[in-house]
Amino acid sequence: MALTRISLTAREPEALALFYQTALGFRRVEAVAPAEIDGARVSEFVRLAYGPSEIDIVGFDPPGLDFPAAQAANDLSFQHFAMITPDIAAAVAGLRGTARWRAISTGGPVRLPASSGGATAFKFRDPEGHPLEFLQPATGAVPRIDHSAIVVSDTAASMEFYETLGLRRQGGSLNQGVEQAALDGISDPVVEVTRLGDAAGILHLELLCYRPAAAPAAETAVNDVVATRLVFSGDGTGGPRKDPDGHAIFLERAAHAL
């Protein structure tokens, strides 16, 4: 199995896709829309690419709940994906020329210390509330989606689950201090970051375990806007799953399209 795409739920997929194209530099690509996902009827479907990386934006009939307005960066429902950019100042300037997005980070892009990777990063929300991140690495800034990051309550339990899907630990760090606080928009965060990857190297997954542990996430339906899915492709039995903290997973056969 390989982690290949990220699938976002949206109330207005076409409008959200336009934001990703005009504000973030995504482009449309052809894809076959599924009739349903996890028993919910798909009403709209858009596939977008950022460099070699792809995301799906999916609408359902009926639609589910709006994104929870009070979600914080250390809530267990929090899940974002990070877009590598060679010029984060220009990327944020372009974002500020569009409407309806909201900043998570305070004070603009944040240069992280060397112990946390030394990248410059900026977290924000798209018009429907999905958390996103611009990331300018210290070296090798080729535009692509680098990773999706999920908040977890127990790193060991999450690693055991994702290892069954073919991911392996590739590194990690303990992030804290004023830089992490500014990036996350919360006070005094201490977060254990564990980076997972597979042989395909299409996307990475980061496990974010905050201390103290966050409260359990509320149960979500597949058509709720907060219900982002990590799509794994390969051989084996397909279908939906949930990880130990309730993050949604979809396993697809190589010839299947979500």
Polypeptide structure, described:
The protein has helices at residues 13-24, 88-96, 155-163, 178-184, and strands spanning 2-9, 27-29, 36-37, 40-50, 53-60, 79-84, 102-103, 110-111, 120-125, 131-136, 144-151, 168-176, 190-197, 204-210, 229-234, 239-242, 248-253. The chain has 258 residues and is mostly beta strands. It folds into two domains: 2-66 and 223-253, 2,3-Dihydroxybiphenyl 1,2-Dioxygenase, domain 1 (Roll), CATH 3.10.180.10; 79-210, 2,3-Dihydroxybiphenyl 1,2-Dioxygenase, domain 1 (Roll). The radius of gyration is 17 Å and the shape is globular.
Main attributes?
eight-stranded mixed beta sheet; 2,3-Dihydroxybiphenyl 1,2-Dioxygenase, domain 1; mainly beta; nine-stranded mixed beta sheet; 2 domains; 258 residues
